[in-house]
């Protein structure tokens, strides 16, 4: 279950890859053309966009009992996960693997799209930091030191890379010991960071909170000066704060997803199996996969940086700040690929994890009454529907990304470069579209 996830191959995508790629490129081109004609002034402003959420929703969401409820839910899940990590058997029937690779990583995306900053609400490390602060008479919002601005999201980018490395290239990723150690190191680093820098550390350095908060920018929920707002997802997306390391975060998320499908493609498998040198050295496949994962992430970052920086700017404008200012536009592309990549995996492996959760010690227990449930392989019997959803998710993600980039370009670039200056980024997005759909069909 754990190792066989990812984008379905051509056998479950009964549509023409050439037609899908041509349609996606056409959609991007038409979208850009329409925007160039009809969208000539900025439409999104973080200071004015959105309207107050209904009073009854605000009354619930801003209440103490609501916050405590979700803190308790997150902490109970944390305690259960710690229990199966410490006392569970080193078997794939241990629900820890599904919690780690499916619930924690994949399910965080749809939950954040629907409800906003989910991990911030249930984060057990935030809860532990809060408890320590209360016991010591301190304030969880402040730490011993001020969080360095130059550090930005770089710790989160490194943490996300550590997770995808564990998932995709580490040869013992389905053994209990390494997964248990990864989780222990994560908790320890987060608690130390929270003690040193306060809650701002979690906002900027916790890989899962940064991940969830970025995806949440495509939800309808936002805040301004503490007030809960309802915004269009595009207006919400415009509120992403460009910080150091933001481009690295998006490059890791996008590049790792692309590599996950590439490593199962016939081209890559043939290369690995056909190389005598790789086959004759046990360490070689791991090294090559490590280099490929790193290469995918660096390539995504480089292509995006080039697409944003190859434009005209006013004299004195620092061109190297452009990738960060446009990084929000790649978030919908990431979400589109994650939906295409993990949809069937989330539903099937997620259900399997719920079934295994009733038997945490692999001894035939049925704690929650789910042990006798069966996984519903709905999409396995409806491949055309699955194919359409996957292609639609990729295309919609790119179209929304083009819109977000266009609005930011109209706001930032001088008038003479507002359209022509977007062409390099459009070409980069077309390259992402073609590459993503090619991987979708070649896995």
UniProtKB/TrEMBL annotation:
Q: Which residues cross the membrane?
A: 19-39, 68-87, 99-119, 150-169, 181-202, 291-313, 325-344, 385-405, 425-441
Keywords attached to this Swiss-Prot or TrEMBL record, sorted alphabetically, are: Membrane, Transmembrane, Transmembrane helix
Q: What is this protein called?
A: Fenitrothion hydrolase
């Amino acid at each position: 279950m754990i190792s066989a996830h990812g984008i379905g191959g051509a056998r479950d995508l009964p549509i023409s890859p050439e037609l899908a790629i041509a349609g996606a490129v056409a959609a991007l081109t038409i979208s850009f053309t329409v925007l160039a004609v009809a969208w000539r002034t900025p439409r999104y402003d973080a200071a004015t966009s959105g309207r107050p959420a209904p009073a009854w929703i605000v009354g619930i969401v801003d209440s103490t009992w609501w916050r405590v409820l979700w803190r308790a839910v997150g902490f109970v899940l944390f305690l259960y996960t710690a229990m199966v990590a410490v006392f569970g058997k080193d078997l794939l029937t241990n629900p820890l693997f599904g919690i780690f690779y499916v619930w924690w990583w994949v399910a965080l995306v749809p939950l954040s799209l629907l409800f906003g900053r989910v991990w911030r609400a249930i984060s057990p490390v935030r809860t532990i930091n809060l408890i320590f602060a209360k016991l010591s008479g301190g304030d969880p919002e402040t730490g011993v030191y001020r969080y360095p601005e130059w550090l930005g999201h770089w710790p989160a980018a490194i943490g996300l890379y550590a997770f995808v490395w564990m998932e995709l290239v580490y040869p013992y990723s389905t053994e209990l010991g390494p997964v248990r150690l990864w989780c222990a190191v994560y908790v320890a680093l987060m608690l130390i960071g929270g003690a040193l820098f306060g809650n701002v550390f979690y906002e900027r350095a916790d890989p899962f909170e940064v991940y969830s908060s970025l995806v949440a920018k495509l939800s309808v929920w936002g805040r301004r000066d503490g007030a809960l707002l309802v915004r269009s997802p595009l207006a919400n997306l415009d509120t992403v704060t460009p910080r150091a390391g933001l481009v690295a975060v998006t490059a890791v998320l996008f590049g790792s997803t692309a590599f996950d499908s590439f490593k199962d493609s016939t081209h890559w498998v043939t290369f690995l199996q056909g190389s005598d040198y790789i086959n004759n050295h046990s360490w070689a496949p791991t090294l090559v996969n490590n280099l490929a994962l790193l290469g995918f992430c660096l390539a995504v970052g480089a292509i995006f940086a080039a697409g944003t920086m190859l434009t005209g700017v006013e004299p004195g404008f620092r061109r190297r700040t452009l990738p960060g200012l446009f990084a929000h536009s790649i978030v919908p592309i990431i979400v589109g690929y994650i939906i295409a990549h993990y949809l069937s995996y989330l539903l099937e492996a997620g259900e399997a994890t719920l079934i295994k959760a009733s038997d945490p010690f692999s001894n035939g227990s049925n704690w929650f009454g789910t042990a006798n449930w069966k996984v519903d392989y709905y999409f396995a019997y409806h491949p055309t529907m699955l194919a359409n959803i996957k292609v639609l998710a990729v295309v919609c993600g790119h179209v929304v990304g083009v819109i977000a980039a266009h609005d930011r370009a109209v706001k930032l670039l001088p008038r003479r470069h507002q359209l022509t200056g977007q062409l390099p980024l459009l070409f980069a997005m077309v390259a992402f579209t073609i590459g993503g759909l090619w991987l979708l069909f070649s896995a």
